Amino acid sequence: MKTICFLYIFLLFLLGSPLTLSAQSDQPLVMAFNNTISKPWKWIENGTYVGPFIDAMQQVADRSRIRIELKPLPWKRVLLGMKSGEVDGFFGGYKTAERESFGLFVETPLSWSTLSIFVRKGKAFSFDRIDDLYGRKIGIVRGYNTSAEFDQAANEKKILVEETSNYISLIKMLAAGRIEGIVGATSTIQAHLVDMNWTDRFSMLPNPVAGPKPIYICLSKRSKNFDQQELAAKMNQALKAMETENVFEEIAKKYGYSKCVVFGCISQMQ
Q1: What are the φ and ψ backbone dihedral angles of 198, each rounded to 5 degrees?
Q2: Alpha-carbon distance 186 to 113, whole Å?
């Protein structure tokens, strides 16, 4: 009788531990991300996306005991998929009021990012606040958020914004003098400049546009494939454990970066 009771309790434990999924649980959850090349976070090698963000998201999934499909998509399609439930979640995005209407953000950030302005050497200008950019041609990656003040000024045409689909095109536009500056993730722009051997051609203005800003994993409220609250709690626990166990530092080091460059010094910022 004791053996039967023990087996019953053990089975209850096994059944209760994994994430409760719907009838579609035989299919992996689709976790989408922006299909741009964004070193030091993610890039393409041999036709496949690699990098610290890819490794970190897979670790979170493994620790949460779920199977995932990592799906690169244009950012607008990521958000549309989140709204419809076609995409189960995304990683590598900022939290906004609009996104909170259709997505549940995991409490602990995946990373932190600072947004800066880069200009050509010898073409620096004073930047202390957004209105210092009024009337200037500034480039950004299409679909990316900057700051509420910047976005408002851009919408009101006070800043003359030029958009491209990726950072490399943006840097080339700046090099050609078609724009006066570019705004984007500091670490990403710096990594691209190193790869392009153009670090001596550009400089970063001392004051950031925004940051440090947290970057999150977000789950679609429209998905019928899992319990959002339960999965968010599991992912949050996984992220905290990864920080305690120095997993982020190990992942960054694997690709030749420091943890603070890739993920930010999370424990110092919370």
Answers
A1: -120, 20
A2: 7
Q: Report DSSP letters for 138-204, one per residue.
A: EEEETT----HHHHHHHHTTSSEEEEESSHHHHHHHHHTTSSSEEEEEHHHHHHHHHHTT-GGGEEE
Cα dist from 226 to 33, 168, 175, 231, whole Å: 19, 37, 47, 7
Instruction: Locate the DSSP E strands across the chain.
Output: 29-34, 43-45, 48-50, 68-73, 89-93, 103-105, 111-120, 137-141, 160-164, 181-185, 202-204, 210-220
Handedness of CA 113, 258, 188, 127 (dihedral sign): positive
Contact yes or no for 203/121 (Cβ under 8 A) = yes
Q: Which two tokens mark 2?
A: 């004791």
- Alpha-carbon dihedral 92, 97, 102, 108, rounded to 10 degrees: 40
- Determine the distance from the C-alpha atom of residue 3 to the mean position of all C-alpha atoms in its chain, rounded to a whole number: 49
Q: How many CB atoms lie within 10 A of CB 2?
A: 6
User: The tokens of 116 are what?
Assistant: 């800066």
Q: Which tokens sit at 255? A: 């690709």
Q: pLDDT tens across 146-185, in order?
A: 888 999 999 999 999 999 988 999 999 999 999 999 999 9
Phi, psi of 231 (to 5 degrees): -70, -40
- Burial class (CB within 10 angstroms; exposed 0-12, middle 13-18, buried 19+) of 249: middle
Residue 85 to residue 97: CA distance in whole angstroms: 18
How far apart CA 114 and CA 159 sit, in angstroms, is 20
pTM: 0.78
Distance CA 259, CA 268 (A): 12
